[in-house]
């Protein structure tokens, strides 16, 4: 906990998903609202099947970040984290010539009492 899910349309060029994840993890940890960097788990998925609007348009693209946090943080804190992740994404995503890219951050709360986690070491 927390979890970062990044989804992006497959028409985005030259995206380095691992670098995006690394940047987002560093940004989230730097907010001071995560006690250990090892608690952050992130993943990225390139979406092959997507549609923005009513008809296919290759000049439209998106990157959507879902950040799942345990409940208990104020709305102000959630908004601050959301804005910082959006700024980090804008810095790490290469410019997409001739395209409009919708960049979004969605913060989701997970209820502490129903979240389970176990560390398994071999």
Automatic annotation (TrEMBL):
GO MF assignments: 5-carboxymethyl-2-hydroxymuconate delta-isomerase activity
SUPFAM superfamilies, alphabetized: Tautomerase/MIF
Keyword terms: Isomerase
InterPro entries named among the record's database cross-references: 5-COMe_2-OHmuconate_Isoase, Tautomerase/MIF_sf
Protein name: 5-carboxymethyl-2-hydroxymuconate isomerase
A Pfam family annotated for this UniProt entry: CHMI
């Amino acid at each position: 906990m927390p979890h970062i899910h990044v989804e992006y349309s497959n028409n985005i060029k030259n995206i380095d998903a691992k670098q995006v994840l690394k940047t987002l993890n560093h940004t989230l940890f730097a907010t001071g609202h995560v006690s250990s960097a090892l608690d952050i788990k992130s993943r990225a998925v390139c979406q092959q099947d997507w549609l923005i609007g009513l008809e296919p348009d290759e000049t439209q693209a998106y990157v959507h970040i879902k950040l799942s946090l345990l409940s208990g943080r104020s709305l102000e804190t959630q908004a601050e984290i959301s804005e910082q992740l959006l700024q980090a994404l804008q810095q790490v995503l290469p410019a997409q010539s001739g395209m409009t890219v919708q960049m979004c951050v969605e913060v989701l709360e997970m209820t502490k009492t129903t979240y389970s986690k176990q560390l398994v070491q071999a």
